[in-house]
Amino acid sequence: MSHSAPPSVVSPAPSASSAATNARNWFGQPPGLTVLFLTETWERFSFYGMSALLIYYMTKQLQFTQADASLIYGLYSGGVFLTPILGGFIADRWLGKRRAILIGGTLMALGHFALAWESQFYTGLGLICLGNGLFLPNLPSQIGDLYGEDDPRRGGAYNVYYVGVNLGGLLAPLVCGTLGEVYGWHYGFGAAGIGMCLGLAVYVLGQKHLPSGRPTKQAANPVKSSQPLTASAFVPLLLVGVAVMLFRSAYAQSGNTVAIWADQSVDLQVLGFQLPATWVQSLNPLCVFMFTPFLIGYWRRSAQRGREPAPLTKMALGAAGVGLAYLLLAGVALGGAKVPGAWLVLFFVLYTLAELYILPVGLGLFARMAPRGMGATVIAAWFLAAFAGNLLSGVVGRLWEPLGPPGFFALLAGIAGLAALGLWLVRPLLRPAA
Questions:
Q1: Domain ranges of the chain
Q2: With contact defined as beta carbons under 8 Å apart, do 102 and 204 qualify?
Q3: 23-217+228-430 belongs to CATH 1.20.1050.40
Q4: pLDDT, tens only, 42-72
Q5: How far is residue 25's CA from residue 214's CA, in Å, rounded to a whole number?
Q6: Residue 270 — φ and ψ, nearest 5°?
Q7: Collapsing DSSP states into helix, strand and coil, what is residue 396?
Q8: Terminal-to-terminal C-alpha distance of the chain
Q9: Which candidate, 11, 179, 43, 63, places its Cα nearest to that of 108?
């Protein structure tokens, strides 16, 4: 069975507001998608702006050891994916998506501003984790509500949204990273807080283009769902989650140990100008912008010929691709001397192409498998795998100094390869859905 790319999301029949929204188009899509795109852009600007500074802030300003900084980085980056489990549940049953997003965004903004003071370091991280729990699962779960079940535009909606994620990720290191490294850490964290406030403003002003997001009867009593999440679907999704957890323990090193390696071992001079190390974090979202349109077009043409890979096949290829990218770094790091920046660029090219095969595809797969009224909750389950993987990444990162760069990058390649094998083996269990 062929699949349109990326996987679509099963959602309830559109409400009156959703139907009205679909009557108009912005850039060939419902205007609500633009609102969600821009909201996510600014939210990710705040999140990645802070994240680009975090490992350097801990090791250079707070004087944490690399091992301790890695563990804290893993605990924090895992925490922002743990709280959405409860946040999605609360939104589906009580708050509704809209209020959850507004409350969560406000908490995140306060957390970013709190990081401007060293004494509030852990308070700031905690506020961001809590706010993210309400924000993260509810914004993307509104995408499916913008479309009718047979709307052909739904196929590309999640990849369009993923571009918004990476637009914020592209701008954040350039703005927040430069302010933090050049003018002072508190300026960088403050800029991240302002970005979150802008995202909230876009969301509030664009309310008329979005569905109500109120909790539904189906959400309160998911047994009545017309599309129950059966054991035959739950168990394979659980196995996919375990493989994704393993994958993320390697994938999440780009903002942790890879960032440290780039700062210490990569020649970042361009035309005599020394680039701030935080700018390296913009390479990944830049590559997302470059490659996403070509990849969507390639998948669409493949689907028309009945040859598009199923979602789990794409995800397995993506995990394997990340493994190859880390294997490249392992070979480059063997020299021991300063590494030309071109190798780091090549790494991010391979890393990003592989990422596009696994992360937005996996999000779409979990959303499509969600019963009616449980969209945010099931998407939150996807983030549970991200929590466990990012938490594990902090533990894995403690091996950076004992193994050295070549050995450590080879270890990451092996971890990603093992995740790819797991995803490949699970494929038959989710057919024809995956």
A1: 23-217+228-430
A2: yes
A3: no
A4: 998 998 899 889 999 999 999 999 999 999 9
A5: 24
A6: -130, 115
A7: helix
A8: 9
A9: 43
